[in-house]
Write a structure and sequence with these properties.
6-stranded parallel beta sheet; alpha/beta; single chain; binds flavin mononucleotide; about 20% strand; 6 strands; disordered C terminus; about 170 residues; Rossmann fold
Length: about 170
């Protein structure tokens, strides 16, 4: 089962509600997903994830410094996740998710575009959007897994053809 870790920083619970809904959406598509507060996130767990979503609310036109430090710590660790998503609640300008996405791209990750931003406390339709993002991550993860197994299928096709050609020669 592909693995998604959703890391968030949330001062009053708005971005956390988004994180929980993203997890719910991914789980409904058979992804092993969990949400963790950034200060409880373990690097070992993140190294093992196939996809990482990072969320932060916007404060003073950027993400809060502890989240920036957390993302820097990912730069030092060798994470295998190639797929990322950025999200966050905001009030009026909402820069944090855009900045997170940029940092994740600098880590070599493909980040789902556009980032997901919700103004203040998410209402039901906003949470549905978050669930949708979780489902989209699941779909992309499964496509990537299939793409990874394609060469094997091609090899199998070649060997079948070879047998047929051999048979034809007799
Ligand atoms: C001191 C302070 C500064 C803020 N600065 C910004 C800002 O620069 N841009 C913005 O879009 N929202 C800003 N906000 C609004 C928060 O991003 C918003 O309340 C958000 O819903 C908080 O989400 P959280 O509970 O996940 O932390 C600010 C809020 C506070 C209290």
């Amino acid at each position: 089962m592909p693995k998604l870790v959703v890391v968030y920083l949330s001062t009053s619970g708005n971005t956390k509600a988004m994180a929980d809904a993203i997890v719910e959406g991914a789980q409904s598509r058979n992804v092993d997903a969990k949400a963790v507060n950034f200060n409880e996130a373990r690097i070992e767990e993140l190294k093992d994830a196939d996809a990482i979503a990072i969320g932060s609310s916007t404060f003073y036109y950027k993400m809060l410094p502890p989240m920036e430090k957390f993302i820097e710590s990912l730069e030092k660790a060798k994470i295998k996740a190639k797929l990322g998503a950025a999200f966050g609640s905001y009030g009026w300008s909402g820069e944090a998710p855009v900045m997170i996405a940029e940092k994740m791209r600098n880590l070599g990750m493909e980040v789902i575009d556009p980032v997901l931003r919700i103004q203040y406390q998410p209402v039901e339709k906003d949470l549905d959007e978050c669930k949708r993002l979780g489902k989209d991550i699941a779909i992309k993860l499964k496509k990537d897994t299939k793409a990874g197994s394609e060469p094997k299928r091609k090899d199998a096709a070649v060997s079948v053809q070879e047998v047929k050609m051999g048979e034809g020669g007799h």
